[in-house]
Each structure stands twice: as structure tokens, then as C-alpha cells.
Amino acid sequence: MSTSERVSARRTRTDQPSDREQQVLDRIDKARRRKPKVREERVTLSHGSGGKATQTLIEAVFLDTFRNPLLEPLEDSASFPVDAGRMALTTDSYVVSPLFFPGGCIGDLAVNGTVNDLAVAGARPLHLTAGFILEEGFPIAELTRIVESIKAAADTAGVQIVAGDTKVVQRGKADGCYINTAGVGVLEHSRELGIATVKPGDAVLVSGPIGEHGITIMLTRGELDIETDLESDTAPLNELTAALLDAVPGVRAMRDATRGGVATILNEIARAANVSVTVDENAVPVRTEVRGASELLGIDPLYVACEGRLVAIVDGEQAEDALATLRSHPLGQQAAVIGHIGADPPGMVMLKTAFGGTRIMDLLVGDPLPRIC
What we know:
Elements: H1 3-14, H2 19-33, H3 52-66, E1 86-94, E2 100-101, E3 104-105, H4 106-119, E4 123-135, H5 140-157, E5 160-169, E6 177-187, E7 203-206, H6 212-220, H7 238-247, E8 251-256, H8 261-273, E9 276-280, H9 288-297, E10 310-314, H10 319-327, E11 336-342, E12 349-352, E13 358-360
Parallel strand pairs: 4-5, 9-12
Antiparallel strand pairs: 1-6, 2-3, 4-6, 7-10, 7-11, 8-10, 9-11, 12-13
């Protein structure tokens, strides 16, 4: 029997606690109200054992930052009501290196990436989970900074972190911190979006300059001796996609241009819909710093990852309406129509180059920029 249970049992016998018993009860209540604190400066294996250290880490770092009614019970899953209709579910993992970079970190990247996967599917994001794989020795201060960035990004996107998990592996078995997420959203319209619905005559749009995230990561690693003010474009796209869907009934499909960049998405579209895609290189918005760094790396900016840009395919007759809608939002001010969908040659993506020629823009073999998300 615990101390509090013994005191409670005596209370039932005497009705009123003695002074000593009241002092014990007061200490117990004070201990329960005391804010948990991680006393270690670095993650230890005990933080992943499921015991007291794990509980303290969860309550002091994660729960204290993400606190909301759905998460607070700390059950194995979160339960929540939804309006009748269709749901969207996605999951992703983040292993970006370095963990912190100009414009963001692995934390807000994880939130924005998951939110965007839901948003381009036409869903309104609701709730996210966050699973952390931590390396023994990882600084608690850096973990706290990452968790706070997750909270800030979730607030900006209008979502909540409602469940999570933490595992710790031995020193040298991971690279500090990896994050796995899942996201759920509700589809509030009846339209069927998807790259297989694309038709000849449709227009291809991007919501802004491409390649900024991937090049920022490469420059932060110090692999190129270039100094710029370039920052990652990581951002939540759910407001932008919602505005586009509300204003343009002819939206066929939307994709966020992450790994593999815009070129990979366009190849996926061409093959899924058995159409051709023609891109005008001069129409593609690319910052000078991104273009210069890409040339030094020997890659095309169209293959470089973004984390706050979308590709939209819309009915060609509604392209101008779509462009105006995108440009009316802060995240789409530099949106552009970059190409069109044709019938031949099916399954191919063609690039009209700045020099006046045309070349095939195929899928890349391998990953020229690993661990950028």
C-alpha cells in the first residue's frame, strides 16, 4: 500500500487527518503538481526504457510543449470526433542532415511535410503524430529546440500533435534525431483529385521558386564554398491549396515537390495519365543562387527538392484563374504557369530549353542530394 493509500485509509477511520497526515498529503499534492524536469543534459538509454526517465522526458519536453486535450491522456491512441465524410491519412519520416538549417529544422520540416501531403490531396489537416528516434548522448537542449519548432509549425498550420512515441538507440546507431510522423485530415469536397485524371490541354503551374530547400541543405553542409542568404522554403501549404480548390473547379491534381523535385512529379504524372508534359524552361521560377549552386553541383534545379512549393495541374481554360488565386496568397506570390499537358509522346516529359532546343527530362537514377528531408 502506498503512502497516500495508507493516509487515505486512516482518514476513513478517523474522518479528519492529523497534522502529520495533512503534511504528508500536502507534500504528495505538491509533488503531483510540480512541473517535471529533465535533469540530464543529454539523452540516455534510460530515456527510452519506458520507465521513470521516459515518463519524465515525455512530460517535461513533449507533453509540456504539445499539451492539448487529445494528447493529455497519454493513451496509446487519440480518439476524436469527425464530421461525416472522407478522411485522408499519410505518414512520413525525416532524417535531414544537418538537423538545423537556415529557415528551419527537422522539427518544422516534419510538420510542414506531413501537412502538405494531406493538403495536396485536398484534405484539411487535423491531427498529427510524432515519433522520435533519439541517439544516446543527444543534447536535451537541442531536442527541446526541435520540439518547440514542431509546436510553432503546428500552430501555424492549425493542427495538433495528438500522439507520439520515443525510442533511444545506442550512441553511434543514429544521427542524433530522426522523426516519424502520421497525419490525418478530412476531405470536405466531393472532387476526385489525382494525377491519373490529368488530360491533354491542362496547364502545369508551380506555386513559387523551386529548389530552395535542397540547395540550402547542401550549402549548410559546407560542401560548396558559397555564401548566400538562401533559406529553406519549408512552409505549410494547406491554406494555399484550400484557396485554389475553392476558386478553381478545374483543379485536376496537386503534388508537393519534395524529393526529386518538380521533374520527378511531372514524370509521375506523364506515366500515370499516359500523357506528355512540355515544360518551358524560361517560365520556371528559380532564384539566381539556386541556379548557380545547381550548376556547380551539375544538377538541374527542376530535380532539386522543395518543402513549401506545390505543382498544380488544372484545366487549361482555368489556368489564369488558378495563377491569380495562387499569387493572391503570400506563399504563391511568384507562382507561374510553366507548361502544358499534351497527348504525344505519351509518358514523356519534354523541356523546351532556354537555348531554343527541346530535350527529354527523364527520371533521375539515384539520389544526387541525399538526406534533404
